[in-house]
Amino acid sequence: MKIDVQVKALFLFVLVTLILPTSTIYGHGDKRPMKKGILLVAFGSTIPEAQVSFENIENSVKKTFPGVEVYWSYTSRIIIKKMAKQGKHLATPEEGLAKMMQENFTHVAVQSLHTIPGAEFHGMHKNVHKFAGMSKGLRSVLVGYPLMASSEDVQRVAETIIKVIPKERKKKEGVVLMGHGTHHPANVYYAALNYHLQRMDPNIFVGTVEGWPEIGEIKADLKKRKIKKVYLMPFMSVAGDHARNDMASPEEDSWKSILEKEGIKCVVVLKGTAEYPEFVDIWVDHLRTAFEHFD
Description:
This protein is α/β, with parallel strands linked by helices and 295 residues long. It has 2 domains: 11-147 and 276-291, Rossmann fold (3-Layer(aba) Sandwich); 151-272, Rossmann fold (3-Layer(aba) Sandwich). The protein is 42% helix and 15% strand. The chain has 11 helices and 8 strands. The strands form 2 sheets. Strands 2-1-3-4 form a 4-stranded parallel β-sheet, sandwiched between helices. β5, α7 (188-200) and β6 (204-208) form a beta-alpha-beta unit. α2 packs across α11 (277-291) and α6 (151-164) crosses α7 (188-200). It starts with a helix and ends with a helix.
């Protein structure tokens, strides 16, 4: 199909031109022993209950890479500022790499915990690349892909979603996944995921808060198919502010309220993707790929 060809072409463009791991050799005179480290990069969240997602990822990473030190950093400036007001400092990726450089790390794998390679990912990728090119900097900085970075990733994510849907859900009942969405061209990944899921189960829908598809279109599809009950699930690494307020709150503009006004019963599942081992495995596989390319 034409849309499938276009999506695959975009995936190839992103992979080849924008996401390739970056590496620079510091110089023949550098006699420091190799010291490898991992920097995990998340969007972040101010919701205490959402921290279980980060803990789950860290536990899996440490189990997969025993003995390798793991650091954290965050890309959301808004969340960083909010947490600072609470007396908690969250490092940016740049601060994280600077600290690791000071602690004599020579090789760092930077693993994106974003869902798609959107603006947050690309801004981070551009900046961390510079640490491998500065004088007396890191010898090598490799970047691991977000959850969905290729057509194979999208297919794997779709299959994983099918696996983690609550077992009590009946085939005639709907499943509505809330993604973040973005005005960045990478928003096409949500549409691609929706396309794959619809082929596997036509009663599963992917929508976004700040992109496309929108809840209005999903509502119309649910009514057209006469679906009277849906499971609302966040398609974000954490069940944070968007999941709790934009998706599940009693406010009249939440997805739950919008659908219930149409007589559609909503069962809310407040669980981020990073709380499921099946999704975490995808991020860890991307990290493993980056790690294997160290000199």
